[in-house]
Amino acid sequence: MAHSTDYYETLGVSREASAEEIKKAFRRRARETHPDTSDHEDAEERFKALNEAYEVLADPQKRETYDRFGTADPRQTGFSGGSAGGGFGMGDLFSVFFDGMSGNFARQASPEGRDMSGQVVVTLLEAADGTEKEIRYNRLAECGTCDGTGAEPGGQVTMCPRCHGTGQVRTARRTIMGTFESVGPCERCEGTGQVVDPPCPTCQGDGRVRVTETVEVKVPPGVMDGVQLRVPGKGEAGLRGASGGDLIVQVRVAPHETLHRDGDDLHGQARVLFTVAALGGEITVDGLHGPVAAKVPAGVANGDTVSVKGEGMPRLRGSGSGDLIVHINIIVPKKLTKDQRRLMEELSASLGDGHEHSAFERIRDWLGV
Ligand SMILES: [Zn+2]
Ligand SMILES: [Zn+2]
């Protein structure tokens, strides 16, 4: 049987549940599902899932991470930053949002640096041509004084005596329901397995310091809205030389004033005078890089489209570009000069009422009945 991965569901509490409610719910469910007392066939599995849920929801820090990212594993949180989606306002243009910088690092469950996530907003033109965007953000970077070791130059890095270098310790807790054994990060070395003596004065032994970083992000031509670019090594540095995270930048393409993207193609609108529509000809339409010429066939109808080859977005796969698809809006002048009116009347008389006669009607006309 598959278990719910929703920790709140597992514990049977609401998302707003207080710490006390979570504790009570855990005790009640633990009594029900404990493998020693429950004869349910997958009691052990249920009990494990319950413990996992409680471990996360009982820890305010882990709970916050879980609420924001749907996981309590800090290494997975970079990809699911909360700022994606939603509409654009002008105020959002060129702004950058970062997740992953809040929280108490001393209590981080793993010595590895986390991925960080950010966002850049580009115009459709920039998305077509490719661009470079500068991002400024704060991150924990490797300490330059100790090169990330956390030890004062000349100091020593030794194996942690508490966890013997594993970075993890087992703790047994006796409770009314029995003894619970859990494995967690070693507090002495913060999970790194090493201790430093004396610690680096710049980073106090963490091996990393908070810096304001400027990163240049290359946005490739043809980039789609929502694409995530990874900048290796520009997330959080790891604790005392542990592996660091990456910076993951989501590209948002702001909507264009007149053009609308559909895959590699762009869609635009053109106003075409009814005479041009009738006779056909060349018109000028707004393309992404400025005015482009489009051919309109004689007899084009309102709502028809004409394509301008190669004036769309560059193809991400393969070469060349998509097309500019122009939607025709036929316009009729509101006012006519005397001469224009006379010509129009002649034309109108020549065309008749514009009603196309059916074969049946034509035969009837011919027969004169
Ligand atoms: Zn240092
Ligand atoms: Zn340790």
Compile the SSE list and pairings.
Blueprint: H1 7-11, H2 19-33, H3 43-57, H4 60-69, E1 116-122, H5 124-129, E2 131-142, E3 151-159, E4 168-175, E5 178-185, E6 194-199, E7 208-219, E8 228-231, E9 247-253, E10 260-262, E11 265-273, H6 274-279, E12 281-287, E13 290-296, E14 305-308, E15 324-331, H7 338-351, H8 359-367
Parallel strand pairs: 1-9, 11-15
Antiparallel strand pairs: 2-7, 3-6, 4-5, 8-9, 10-11, 12-13, 14-15
Helix pairs in contact: 2-3
Bound molecules: zinc ion (2 copies).
Residues 143, 145-146, 150, 200, 202-203, 207 line the site of one zinc ion.
Describe it:
With 369 residues, the chain is of the alpha+beta class. It has two domains: 59-253, Urease metallochaperone UreE, N-terminal domain (HSP40/DNAj peptide-binding domain, Sandwich); 260-351, HSP40/DNAj peptide-binding domain. Helices cover 22% and strands 30% of the residues. It has eight helices and 15 strands. The protein has helices at residues 7-11, 19-33, 43-57, 60-69, 124-129, 274-279, 338-351, 359-367, and strands spanning 116-122, 131-142, 151-159, 168-175, 178-185, 194-199, 208-219, 228-231, 247-253, 260-262, 265-273, 281-287, 290-296, 305-308, 324-331. The strands form six sheets. The protein has a four-stranded mixed beta sheet. Strand 4 and strand 5 form a beta hairpin. Helix 2 (19-33) runs antiparallel to helix 3 (43-57). The radius of gyration is 34 Å and the shape is elongated. The model is unreliable at 74-108 (pLDDT under 50). The site of one zinc ion has 8 residues, from loops. One zinc ion is lined by residues 143, 145-146, 150, 200, 202-203, 207.
